[in-house]
Amino acid sequence: MNFVTKKWVFMKISSAILVPLMIWFILNLVSIFDKDYIEIVNFFTTQPSKILVSLTLVFAYFFSALSISEVFEDYIQDEKIKNAANKMLNIFAIIVPIITITIIFNLS
Fold first, then answer.
1. Pathway, according to UniProt (predicted)?
2. Fewer C-beta neighbours within 10 Å, C or N terminus of the chain?
């Protein structure tokens, strides 16, 4: 299987995983929207919420990195700029979820 096919398969799998996670996230966001700070922190400190929010972040950033890299492939002709943009995108897609997940898991 070549690289482009793998990328397409990963996009389809990650989007299929994201659908139920996003439904869960949206329903819970609506339920905690009008809550005060303590109730929101309590929501994020429960174990299922920590795990599901973490999975949502990882898959969302993975999917967005794949999608944006396709835009780079289509619209940036210079290979050096395209490679630099893809590397920066991948670094961003790794660092931001790690920082966010670390903060969520350190909530008490």
1. Carbohydrate metabolism; tricarboxylic acid cycle
2. C
Q: Residue 21: which CATH number?
A: 1.20.1300.10
Helix (H, G, I), strand (E, B) or coil at 41: helix
Q: Please enumerate, as own/partner, the contacts of 7-15 that have beta carbons within 8 Å and a separation of 24 or more.
A: 7/66, 7/69, 7/70, 10/62, 10/66, 11/63, 11/66, 11/67, 14/59, 14/62, 14/63, 14/66, 15/63
Domain count, the chain: 1
Angle subtended at Cα 74 by Cα 73 and Cα 80, rounded to the nearest 5 degrees: 40
> What is the Cα–Cα distance from 99 to 90, expressed in whole angstroms?
15
The residue-averaged pLDDT of 40-62 equals 93
The closest of 4, 14, 3, 1 to 65, measured between CA atoms, is 14
pTM (two decimals): 0.85
Extract the tokens encoding 84: 């630099």
Which residue range forms the structural domain that includes residue 60? 3-105
